């Protein structure tokens, strides 16, 4: 594995389903509502999405030791699973979340994170079931609706996905993670112009994080505006990381002729 691949946000998005990134954006906020015990989780010196492979491995080792001492702790387990997922260890992350869910069977946040882990492992039907069991019709959670939408997107049902996103926006207007998921839904359908509209709106909202901005950079880059993509990416990443991401994206599109395919799809959507 090259250094570029290790440190890159774009390749992680591009070489796996784009929806998994969308689920990650949604459920990261959901997991933050978990039952936290002050000082129980080792502090990290930077966001997970900006870590390279070495840093993710170190973070996993550190949090894993805490998890081993108390696998029933929901907050520790969810954090450990998130680090494992970012490091490409989806099966291990799922095994961790299965244990956490067994010990916390009624915790909505745990069930949501379990759904994320199932989706990351490609078990989409089970993921959808976990998310829906976490939801309560009388007090619907916008984060769960958005996560459900992301799973429908990955299942190839954009109509159901966007219905969930819009319901989520009714509950939480202008929420950047929902707008980002909605934008990525249009990416999956090849409608890059609409995707950019939603992602640009997401970035302008208070609370938009690095992952939302990196999704916008990705969509801008997919339209061939590489310098602009690099500028967006470098607002969070180091200059070297941003350049590496855009170089990887440029090379991938060139090698696979993906850019021409995306242009054709985008043209059809605008005619």
UniProtKB/TrEMBL annotation:
**Alphabetical list of InterPro entries matching this protein:** TMTC_O-mannosyltransferase, TPR-like_helical_dom_sf, TPR_rpt, UCP035836
Repeat as a keyword of this entry, yes or no, is no
TPR repeats mapped onto the chain: 142-175
- SUPFAM superfamilies for this protein: TPR-like
- Put simply, this protein is called Tetratricopeptide repeat protein
Record organism: Hoeflea alexandrii
- Show which residues constitute the signal peptide: 1-21
**PANTHER family registered for this protein in UniProt:** PROTEIN O-MANNOSYL-TRANSFERASE TMTC2 (PTHR44216)
């Amino acid at each position: 594995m090259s250094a570029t691949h290790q440190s890159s946000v774009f390749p992680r998005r591009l070489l796996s389903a784009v929806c998994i990134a969308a689920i990650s954006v949604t459920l990261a906020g959901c997991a933050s509502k978990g039952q936290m015990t002050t000082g129980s989780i080792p502090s990290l010196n930077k966001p997970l999405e900006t870590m390279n492979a070495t840093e993710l491995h170190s973070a996993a080792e550190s949090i894993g030791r805490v998890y081993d001492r108390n696998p029933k702790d929901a907050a520790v387990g969810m954090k450990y699973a998130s680090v494992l997922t970012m490091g490409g260890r989806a099966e291990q992350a799922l095994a961790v979340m299965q244990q956490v869910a067994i010990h916390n069977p009624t915790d909505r946040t745990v069930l949501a994170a379990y759904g994320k882990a199932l989706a990351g492992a490609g078990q989409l039907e089970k993921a959808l079931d976990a998310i829906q069991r976490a939801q309560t019709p009388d007090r619907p959670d916008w984060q769960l609706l958005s996560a459900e939408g992301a799973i429908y997107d990955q299942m190839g049902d954009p109509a159901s996905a966007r219905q969930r996103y819009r319901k989520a926006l009714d509950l939480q207007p202008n929420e950047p993670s929902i707008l980002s998921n909605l934008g990525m839904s249009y990416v999956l359908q090849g409608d890059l112009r609409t995707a950019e509209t939603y992602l640009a709106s997401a970035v302008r909202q208070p609370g938009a994080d690095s992952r939302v901005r990196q999704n916008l950079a990705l969509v801008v880059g997919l339209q061939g505006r590489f310098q602009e993509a690099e500028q967006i990416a470098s607002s969070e990443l180091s200059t070297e990381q941003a350049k590496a991401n855009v170089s990887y994206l440029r090379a991938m599109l060139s090698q696979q002729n993906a850019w021409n395919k995306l242009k054709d799809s985008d043209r059809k959507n605008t005619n």
